[in-house]
Amino acid sequence: MTAEVGPRRRSDARDNRERILAVARLAFATEGLDVPLREIARRAEVGAATLYRHFATKDALLSEAFAEQMETCSAIVAEGLATPDPWQGFRLVVERLMELHALDRGFARVFTSRLPEAVFAADRDRTLRMLLELVGRAKKAGPLRRDFVIEDLSLALMANEGIRAESPATRVAASRRFAALMLQSFMADPVAAPLPPPVRLPLTRA
Amino acid sequence: MTAEVGPRRRSDARDNRERILAVARLAFATEGLDVPLREIARRAEVGAATLYRHFATKDALLSEAFAEQMETCSAIVAEGLATPDPWQGFRLVVERLMELHALDRGFARVFTSRLPEAVFAADRDRTLRMLLELVGRAKKAGPLRRDFVIEDLSLALMANEGIRAESPATRVAASRRFAALMLQSFMADPVAAPLPPPVRLPLTRA
DNA sequence: ACCGTAACGGAACACCCCGTCCGGTTGACT
DNA sequence: AGTCAACCGGACGGGGTGTTCCGTTACGGT
To answer: Which parts of this chain does the entry mark as a DNA-binding region (chains A, B) (predicted)?
Structure first.
């Protein structure tokens, strides 16, 4: 799936493609999905048509741009699954996923929606299976409440998306506290643990 | 501020105004804030200009449309404050506010943003003061964790907003479970209590 | 050095939105 | 009934977005 030589491509085209992807990733991450394609083209110093020649539609661009993050998700879950203590693994997954989603608004949005573009479906399913396994272990080991369902994680991630803030830093800080709260509520025999510092939330304008 | 007779108005105009408000409330509640004004005008069987004559700008319409819900919020908090057991009061407030916000997406959005249109500022501040009082009592009584800050409620409400679903019913169900989870994490000496039923989340498309 | 063709970029298309202006219509008071 | 202000709906201008058209450029193999 990578580095197929394919028909010899012109090198400038290849460069443009990379540049567009890089710019798009940054833009979507920091500004969300509704960044105009024109703007991305402009920042990549490319005409609109060029962008469309490389990515037939906006969705296509989104899929490609987020493939990387999708793999990061997989990796996070895999790491959680590899952690000896299932609860620690679960906790790590929740914290890391939420942080990732807080840092990349666009990806968060795509992740909780469904753009079942083939690119995603595979990773998604694999990740989901690993998650189910991890959840099973964490329940069996005791700390995760028995009535937890995988949808509760979706719920938590969607909710995490709702957290808006002026700066990414603020958003991450708020998200961190939120993750700690959620984790607390996921415990079978909860113990009130200290939380990350509260965040002053200067409500966003839009 | 209400029912000023003012200069005799034509009755048809008055009717139109009411109809527009009713339609707008419904539309904003079920579809969010970005319903085109034209669409609202169309549903109210009124021309665009008519709508603008009654409400100078979209923000003006929003303010008027949500004034009612804003009062409902106040009422909820007041009721919570009037509840003998502070924790029960707090719990009631969280549950009711979240349900209200789940039922009315538009209002939720306006509430967690700041449209400090004079109409709101007053209610908002009053409500906030009551909330602080309630939080203080709930902490003093014991059940609410000491490191809870009022921003955590904002956080929870924003997060609640992130919960998307196809139907309002699904959204409310999901929101209910979410509220229960959050309440659990707000407790100083948490006891894992049963949760509302989990919700299958057929991820939304957009 | 040359030239075919892949790749390019700006402008144009089609659509949607907010907010305003205009000529015809209708309610209410005399 | 008559009159006039207030109201009405439709058309208009300005701005924005995803996507496509088409004349032009410049890569890269010979």
So the answer is: 36-55
